[in-house]
Specification:
- The protein is an alpha/beta fold.
- The chain has two domains: 1-91 and 231-401, Rossmann fold; 96-229, Sandwich (Jelly Rolls).
- It has helices at 48-56, 71-74, 78-90, 255-261, 273-276, 283-300, 323-326, 331-344, 352-356, 362-367, 380-398, and strands at residues 62-69, 92-98, 111-114, 120-124, 138-142, 148-153, 161-168, 173-179, 182-188, 196-197, 201-204, 208-213, 219-227, 232-239, 266-270, 305-309, 348-350.
- The strands form three sheets. Strands 1, 2, 7, 10, 11, 13, 14, 15, 16 and 17 form a ten-stranded mixed sheet that branches. Strands 3-6-12-8-9 form a five-stranded antiparallel sheet, with no helix packed on it. A two-stranded antiparallel sheet has the order 4-5.
- A hairpin with a 2-residue loop joins strand 8 (173-179) and strand 9.
- Helix 6 runs parallel beside helix 8.
- This is SGNH hydrolase-type esterase domain-containing protein.
- Pfam families: Ape1_N, Lipase_GDSL_2.
């Protein structure tokens, strides 16, 4: 393992693979745009009525949404706008699962993670190896006896949270939690080599300081922040820059148990850009991987709705003469495979490229200030406009007013 540098700021956001360029100048202050017209996509899903009922009763019980994805998710602009729109109508159920310590190139729409230097080593499933990766793909290893993390709100808020640690411990240890009202200490029992959520600490506000009483074999995987009322929408954004669908294969066996423990009502898979930019991608293997992933989700979460978000439009060869030649070589095939897999698994599929206007439409989006100059990623307005369209599509599928 190598020691990673601290976050360099939003200017370092995003990317790993060719064709997934940094979004250095994302404007996070831009206002959300008006929701666009509804896409003409209609699919059936046996669990849609269940999810619709959950939303209608969100004032009494939480609706849990977990989005997995690549750099489009890691910026938490697209998912952040989805979270804002859903919570505005159905209640703020909390932020969901975030990494345990700061992750270079990754941000969260509602909170900022801070940690002092030389207190933690971050190991990422993006480009490192470990047999311990948890749900989400980030592993924080203590380097000091009592390493600390601070969680701050991006905007002033009176929201209160129920907080628990995702951790693994060879022997029992403890966690100290301090907010402006006081402090609490909780025992983190030994986990026998498995990932576990620690005891929930109620009625905490931000900023929140967390100090781990480190013991050999203790590592952290994240923090789960639920609203104190235990109702409303909880929306976790689990994005890794440069990730493909196969990144979950690097996570420790049993991570699905962690996912199940969160009881997600909606699981969103938002991969595809990095696959599309790989000219050597084995399409048959990718099709098999996606099919197996959907089968596993159906088996583990039989009552949940699964939604595949196709990759947005992008351009790889700017100087090519034809639109087809400018596109990533595998983009059309990846979208086709995703659509077919969703249909076969009775999952939903939202065609992001089609919503944008089809092949090479990102050039027009860039001209309107909705896409970055790399012609791969969108601006804050572009992501929020796209999220508004996905939100509209989801409400149509659920037949919500």
């Amino acid at each position: 393992m190598r020691r990673l540098h601290n976050i360099l700021g939003l200017a370092l956001l995003i990317c790993a693979l060719p064709g997934c360029s940094p979004v250095a100048a994302v404007d996070t202050t831009a206002r959300p745009v008006t929701a666009p017209a509804k896409p003409a996509v209609n699919q059936s899903n046996g669990n849609l009525a269940v999810l619709a009922g959950k939303f209608k009763n969100a004032n009494r019980a939480p609706v849990t949404i977990i989005q997995f994805g690549d750099s489009h998710t890691a910026a938490d602009l697209f998912s952040g706008e989805m979270r804002r729109l859903l919570q505005a109508q159905y209640g703020d159920g909390g932020i969901g699962l975030v990494a345990a310590t700061p992750v270079p190139g990754t941000r969260y729409e509602q909170v900022i993670l801070k940690a002092a230097k030389r207190q933690w080593e971050l190991v990422s499933a993006r480009n490192q190896q470990s047999a311990q990766f948890p749900l989400g793909g980030y592993l924080s290893v203590p380097l000091a006896a009592k390493p600390g993390v601070r969680i701050e709100a991006r905007e002033p808020s009176s929201q209160r949270y129920r907080v628990s640690a995702l951790y693994q411990a060879q022997e029992s240890t403890s966690l100290l939690l301090r907010d402006p009202r006081g402090q609490n200490r909780r025992l983190l029992a030994a986990t026998g080599g498995q990932w576990r959520f620690g005891p929930v600490v109620n009625n905490l506000g931000l900023p929140l300081d967390l100090t781990l009483d480190s013991r050999p074999g203790t590592v952290l995987g994240g923090w789960y922040l639920q609203g104190q009322k235990n109702a409303g929408v909880i929306y976790s954004a689990l994005g890794i820059n440069g990730a493909r669908l196969e990144v979950t294969d690097k996570w420790q066996p049993g991570w699905q148990d962690t996912l199940k423990s969160l009881r997600p009502d909606l699981v969103i898979l938002a991969y595809g850009t990095n696959e599309a930019f790989d000219d050597t991608l084995d399409l048959n293997l990718y099709q098999t991987q996606l099919k197996q992933t959907l089968e596993r989700l159906r088996r583990d979460l039989p009552r949940a709705v699964v939604l595949i978000v196709g990759p947005p439009d992008s351009i790889k060869q700017r100087k090519a003469r034809s639109c087809a030649a400018r596109q990533p070589q595998q983009l059309a095939a990846v979208i086709r495979i995703q659509r077919q897999a969703a249909r076969q698994a009775n999952a939903l599929f939202w065609d992001w490229q089609a919503y944008m206007g089809g092949q090479c439409s990102i050039a027009a989006w860039q001209a309107q200030g909705l896409a970055r100059g790399d012609l791969v990623h969108l601006t804050a307005d572009g992501y929020r406009k796209s999220a508004a369209a996905l939100h509209d599509y989801l409400r149509t599928q659920l037949k919500l007013n």
